[in-house]
Design a protein that fits this description.
By secondary structure, this protein is α/β, with parallel strands linked by helices. The protein contains 14 helices and nine strands.
């Protein structure tokens, strides 16, 4: 499928990015295989079970022996020992999947961790821990499995977050890792397009998962942690909240991530997948995300020598709208050419100059 990469176009070029068309497997094609990292719990486990039940073969990455044993009991799932911070385990997983001989249609970079702390109180080791999993882990896994994906002309799905657009008190480090993953995904998409590999991002909101509970366990286990200098009262509140959450269990963490797993399946196997899938359990979370994106756009646009008018911004949105909602497609040559011409004129204001 073809897509107009607006952000890349504004930053670098006036061209339209072209992405490959993938056709869904029919009944005579071999069973498609997918690797999911962080598949022991939460979004990863939900997605693994959903895809396996749908007839796809899932290599489910996990670190603990008990989780590997449980995953291996599920039809169409093969558990793979995979810590995304350990290159030797990633290399071993590549060798195993090649040896299995199914090929690899897609990877779902789901493994992630969370740390909450004020930025001026946090230790640099906490930031390094976050990025080692949430960004460098994605980098390592994608690089290692890229040859298999190029062979299959397959897909890469990165599990980002609405925190890739939002941030707030205490969440600066986590949000930084997800903002970085957004940039990584954009560039990877542009690069892999030349190799007929499609890349998408999933942006989940606040669904039930173990990521927050795991963070709480680490925080409560750190009995040597020093008191904060400026935000100690807030730290104590967080610790108290962690005790409450652990006592309540994951079933009280929110809505199960079924909708996220469904979006992952669409990103992997739909004939015309989207670049990004915003998946939230509540309308207000969509509102937070869209308001922040629009706020930043308007702030960037305001009060400089090359600002666009309100009417011009709405004109651009109206031009993109039919492509975003599926009424038009960049696979259609006439629509593609029309949008190219429009954007060239709009971005440079050639049309305005002619008037």
């Amino acid at each position: 499928m073809k897509r107009l990469g607006l952000l890349a176009a504004l930053a670098f070029t006036f061209s339209v990015m072209v992405f490959p068309s993938h056709v869904l497997a029919d009944e005579v094609e071999p069973q498609k295989a997918v690797l999911i990292t962080g598949a022991s719990t939460g979004i990863g486990r939900n997605a693994a079970e959903r895809l396996a039940a749908a007839g796809y073969f899932v290599y489910a990455g996990a670190r603990k022996a008990a989780d590997l044993e449980e995953l291996n009991k599920i039809d169409n799932i093969m558990a793979v020992r995979l810590d995304v911070t350990r290159q030797e385990e990633i290399d071993a997983a590549v060798a195993l999947i090649r040896k299995e001989g199914r090929g690899l249609w897609g990877i779902v970079n789901n493994a992630g961790v969370n740390v909450v702390a004020p930025l001026i109180e946090a230790d640099v080791s906490e930031l390094e821990f976050l990025f080692d999993v949430n960004l460098y882990g994605v980098f390592r896994v994608t690089k290692a499995f890229a040859p298999l994906l190029v062979e299959s002309k397959g897909r890469i799905v990165n599990i980002s977050s609405i925190s890739g657009f939002l941030s707030g008190r205490g969440y600066g480090m986590y949000s930084a890792s997800k903002h970085a993953l957004e940039a990584y995904t954009d560039s990877l998409s542009n690069e892999m397009e030349e190799l007929d590999v499609f890349v998408a991002a999933i942006e989940p909101g606040n669904f039930a998962s173990d990521i927050g509970l795991t963070r709480c366990k680490r925080r409560l286990a750190d009995t040597d942690a020093k008191p904060y200098v400026y935000f100690e009262e807030r730290r104590q509140q967080l610790l108290a909240r962690c005790r409450e959450r652990l006592e309540a269990g994951v079933e009280n963490e929110g809505t199960p991530p079924d909708a996220v797993a469904a979006a992952i399946e669409r990103a992997l196997f739909d004939e015309n997948p989207k670049d990004r899938y915003l998946v939230v359990p509540r309308q207000v979370e969509a509102g937070w995300t869209m308001a922040k994106v629009m706020e930043e756009m308007l702030s960037l646009n305001a009060r400089h020598d090359h600002s666009y008018t309100r009417d011009e911004l709405i004109e651009l949105m109206d031009a993109f709208w039919p492509f975003a909602v599926g009424e038009k497609s960049f696979d259609d040559e006439a629509s593609d050419a029309e949008m190219r011409a429009f954007f060239q004129s709009w971005a440079t204001r050639q049309g305005k100059a002619a008037e």
